[in-house]
Amino acid sequence: xxxxIRRFRRAAATTAVLAVVALTANACGGxxxxxxxxSSSEIHIGAWLPLSGAVAAYGVPQKAGADAYxxxxxxxxxxNGRKVRxxxxxxxxDPQQTVQIARELVGQDKVVAIVNANGxxxxxxxxxxxxxxxxxxxxxxxxxxxxxxxxxxxxLFGTQxxxxxxxxxxxxxAVQDGxxxxxxxxxxxxxxxxxxxQVEPVAKQVDPSVxxxxxxxxxxxxxYTPVISKVKADKPQAVIxxxxxxxxxxxxxxxxxxxxxxxxxAYAPVAAESTVSLAKDAAEGLKAVxxxxxxxxxxxxVKEFRTAMAKYEPGQTAGFLALWGWSNAKVFAEIAKxxxxxxxxxxxxxxxxxxxxxDPGVSPVMKFSASDHLGTRSVQRVVVKNGVWTSVxxxxxxxxxG
Length: 402
Known about the structure:
This protein is an alpha/beta fold. The chain has 2 domains: 12-161 and 299-371, Rossmann fold (3-Layer(aba) Sandwich), CATH 3.40.50.2300; 163-290 and 381-396, Response regulator (Rossmann fold, 3-Layer(aba) Sandwich). 41% of the residues lie in helices and 16% in strands. The chain has helices at 12-28, 56-75, 95-108, 120-133, 163-176, 190-196, 199-206, 225-234, 245-257, 273-279, 300-312, 320-336, 345-353; strands at residues 42-49, 83-90, 114-115, 138-139, 156-157, 181-187, 211-217, 238-242, 264-266, 287-290, 379-385, 388-396. The protein has a 7-stranded mixed beta sheet, with helices on both faces. Strands 3-4-5 form a 3-stranded parallel beta sheet. Strands 1-2 form a two-stranded parallel sheet. Helix 2 links the parallel strand 1 and strand 2 (83-90).
């Protein structure tokens, strides 16, 4: 999940204590440290998702997309004759609740893997119990950090291109479009600052003469009048937005009001339906990167997604967020199909380590190995055309950082 800075860092010490308590309590209960065993009739997996609270707008559609995929899959016979049972519990995007949910999913529900869950700090709170103590894999988590995969952790595999690589992609895009002076407008929390800092090195790697400046904006600012004035004073040739979707929409609307028209680029958190619905015509022409193809694309794999959403999750929007869930569910299923014999926690881990080319169609080809647990660095370029996000070209791998 996008690193929305709500409560991420406020209880790091408490989270650590809770993780230790959960680990100890489960050890006393006799949890099998070799991971969950498989069933001959079904594959039981689980997830924690924010289905209530401030970021339910992310978790609810993500769940709908994965639900649509698993329902379609089960209607066709499941995975090698086994139906998929996906147990989802609401963590309200809270690390403490996530630790408790992890105990329930692993200790009581006996899931063989956590699949398509959501949240960076939330997952980190559960790592000691799930990965280390129980040896149950966490797969395709929405969110993540570079430290998760360097070095790789046993049982942890990701499908989301890191935010730092997203910044590299839009930096290269802006320079390739001819910008010689770029202004990065970003929220002020550390997570946003870190991503914003990735722009300059890659931009200069593409063209050493490029000038890159940064403008920090207080998180959740709603009045962008002074921000746009500062942008105009800087006189950039392009702007890169490292903001949340509502903040980006506020920026675009105020820029239009003040007559500021510049090529504008953004990372994946901005490439959402909400940005267009909030900014309306001010979003026209906005360029961004995404983790999946645009949901409006005529591509057959995307059409399959829209059809399944209409059939199995009527009333839910077939947008980017649902497509994330769909893609993550499909990656898991494609890898699980390669398992011969019981589907256990260990057999799933082994299968992921051997999955060298998994093509979900709607997202980049995923390549895993024993030494590389992050499936992709690629992104999809998207542009707002006639009020709709539209894919531009195919998936693209940005220049290597550092």
